[in-house]
Amino acid sequence: MTESPIVVRAGAASHTGLRRRVNEDSYLAASPLFLVADGMGGHDAGDRASAAVVAEFELLAGAPSLGIDDVRAALRRTRARVEAIAGDGRAAGTTLTGVVIAEVGGIGYWLTVNVGDSRTYRFANGLLEQISVDHSVVQELVDAGVLTGAEAGTDSRRNEITRAIGAGSDGQADYWMVPAEPGDRILVCSDGLSGELSAAQLRGILDDESDPQDAATRLIHEALLHGGRDNVTAIVVDALAVSGNDDDVFDTAPAGARSADGDTRPRVEGTS
What we know:
Layout: E1 6-15, E2 25-30, E3 33-38, H1 46-58, H2 68-83, E4 86-87, E5 90-91, E6 93-94, E7 96-104, E8 107-115, E9 119-124, E10 127-130, H3 137-143, H4 149-152, E11 165-166, E12 174-179, E13 185-189, H5 191-194, H6 199-208, H7 212-225, E14 232-242
């Protein structure tokens, strides 16, 4: 296939926040890659680590689509880059999350990748769902039934992550292959956004703003109004047309319907 299996329109925005001096977030919004990397606070050269990850993936930009082997290989190279960055004997580290346009059997997919606690969401048919699963201490406690989701949002351990690229972590990435449909709206963000705005607030903004750049800009603005305690980055990606899908091309505000029967999120197991 020489054309992209998912025709997209995207917008992105980033801000240092109101309490930080350096923006350690980096992002890539260049089809077929839409990724956010959050340099780990408290680690030297976190901004360099996130920038190194983005620079490695940027080498793949411009392809019609990519496969999971391409992403895994790039992740291996990013780990080498990040591990080479050190300051005062402390390891740099970063999260990584986002979607990569993929094609399987002539059908367009969102190949979702995640390491750490940055997040990837899908908004469709008025519903917002988190595709990625946080690699964090509080998420593990939620999974174990020790904390509720609401308690996790205020727990003192909420910024402790269990996987990263670098920072002495050998944690592997999680992958999901999500079938794309016209009208899908993807949100990729650092925890500076998800930590300031509730799911309901995110959903409201994504629903209100038809243009993806306007949506990304407003998300950042609202995060700052709600405290801006961390660096904050958002990418909004709209699926306008999807190969292998019988629906018409989608060219207005996203509302892509999807039946429950076809709404599976298969996780792709394996090392990265």
